[in-house]
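Record 1 of the preview.
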Amino acid sequence: MKATIERATLLRSLGHVQSVVERRNTIPILSNVLIEAGEGGAVKVMATDLDLQVVETMPAASVDTPGAITVSAHLLFDIARKLPEGTQVSLEVADNRMTVKAGRSRFQLPTLPRDDFPVIVEGDLPTSFELPAKVLAELIDRTRFAISTEETRYYLNGIFFHVADDDKPVLKAAATDGHRLARYTIDQPDGADGMPDVIVPRKAVAELRKLLEEALDGNVEIDLSASKIRFTLGGEGGVVLTSKLIDGTFPDYSRVIPTGNDKLLKLDPRSFFEGVDRVATIATEKTRAVKMGLDTDKVTLTVTSPDNGTAAEELPADYKADGFEIGFNATYLKDILSQIDNDTVELHLADAGAPTLIRKDEKSPALYVLMPMRV
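->
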């Protein structure tokens, strides 16, 4: 194989695929990226961790000898990063070594044969639809902070996508860690009818969100079955991310969304966030709870720490119901408030032991539920 690629092109493509590669691997080939130079003057790069694979096709300045080889992903990426801007990078393979030349630099890297490189077999992906990249990015941003990191409840380690019939057909994305729930609803895209319920793993969500950052103006093609999902960004010759789905059943989260919370609190999310952040300064790991005392048109935030003393702050609010006190985990509350880009946030409360519903307003596609803490 022999190909010449512009440094910026090579760096961008390697940047997209190399983050899939785990730093520590017991299987040596999984540390490598597959580079395939075709006769048409295009070079394909591919990386995988056996659950997730990313493939990108980039234009080459020239392909003198077509062929395919695998080489260390992080090493080649670091070399490309440090090469001077604007240089042409030549990749040539002979005697199980890859020679990388650019300007006056020359590297010789060990390789492993292409035939040993594992490829995820997608099989049949019967459901196909498109979403604007901006919508998909928003959907991920508004939910992924609630994904569980507890490996024992592996079925919560991702975003749950499913179609439903509310007043009209919709596609919903939900994530929960048992303490809080985030849900985002959009109109059901054409082609998503009859789609199986799927849980997209946390790592696939993170990699997809990175790729979306550079493709926000386009559409994303989504193809899926009950066990695999494929995202195609940038159409032909773009980036293709394929992931296995989490094999598990996501709990019926609709049961925890309160419908009868009759106490409505409205306030400015930014000043609320900052107030919680300030009083939580003295909170320790054991006392992350912030107590909210609700009275007519005001909220008093307090934190009590056996080691660091106490903190209190009063915020103006719109509240007309009976006064009571409720406690929340300050970090979880801030995570949710940081998602609200509006002048007001609504908290629908019932009592000190019941889950609270948080949203921008009733028309908002995003909805959050937060479990209270005993304080």
